[in-house]
Amino acid sequence: MKSLYIPKDLRRVFFRTLNTDRKLMFKKEFDTSYVGFMENGAKWLVENTDIKLVGVDYLSVAAYVHLVQSHLVFLESMEIILVEGLKLDGVPAGIYSLNCLPLRLVGSEASPIRCILIR
């Protein structure tokens, strides 16, 4: 994470990983070998950046072997919104304006959203 040189004032980030190159979001079967955050990567992000929203290009922000531990790091910070299941193929790296449009679900802890990136 440190080698990514994430600017201190950055608030929202989407991670386009090998999951996109492997087209995992288009496969019918769940693939446990997807790229996700390990506990130490999540902890570094929480402790060393001002990020408030993390988006990833597969069904979980956490690596399969660190599902609970990584999610707990993000959720215990109570400041970071997790956006999972992004389809980022055809989206080049860059700076975008982001709008997330959630469904209003009463009594729910999460919701499907539509994310709109504007260059």
From TrEMBL:
<dbReference type="GO" id="GO:0019441">
    <property type="term" value="P:L-tryptophan catabolic process to kynurenine"/>
</dbReference>
<dbReference type="InterPro" id="IPR037175">
    <property type="entry name" value="KFase_sf"/>
</dbReference>
<protein>
    <recommendedName>
        <fullName>Cyclase family protein</fullName>
    </recommendedName>
</protein>
<keyword id="KW-0964">Secreted</keyword>
<comment type="similarity">
    <text>Belongs to the Cyclase 1 superfamily.</text>
</comment>
<dbReference type="GO" id="GO:0004061">
    <property type="term" value="F:arylformamidase activity"/>
</dbReference>
<keyword id="KW-0272">Extracellular matrix</keyword>
<dbReference type="InterPro" id="IPR007325">
    <property type="entry name" value="KFase/CYL"/>
</dbReference>
